[in-house]
Design goal:
Helix 1 (17-27) runs parallel beside helix 5 (86-93). The chain has a two-stranded antiparallel sheet. The model has no long low-confidence stretch (mean pLDDT 96). The protein has helices at residues 17-27, 44-53, 56-63, 67-83, 86-93, and strands spanning 3-4, 13-14, 30-32, 39-41. Helices cover 57% and strands 11% of the residues. By secondary structure, the protein is mainly alpha-helical. Strand 1 and strand 2 (13-14) form a beta hairpin. The chain has one domain (3-93).
Amino acid sequence: MVWECGIGECGACFDEVEAAIAHQATEHERRECKVCGTVVPDGYLAIYHAFSEHSRAEYVRAYGADSNAVRRRESIVEDVTAVVDQDELARLLDR
C-alpha cells in the first residue's frame, strides 16, 4: 500500500505509514488545536489528537465540521492505528 501525504497539495508518497506520519510531523508546520490550544504536528497526529483528546461535539464546534468531515477523520484514525508500528514511528520521530 502507498501512503500519500494529505496536507495541502504536498502529495508526497511513502511505502510505510510510519514514514508518511514522520514526514507530516517534520516537513509541515505545526498547528494549534482549536479546542485546547495545544500545538501539534499537522496531518494524522493532529487528527489523532483531536479525536483522542476531545469529543466529537467539541471538534464540530471548534472546526465547523459536518458529520462527513468527522466520519472521514475518524476513518483515517482507525485505518492508520490498525497498521502503524508505534516503535518504528517513535524511532523515526526521534531522528
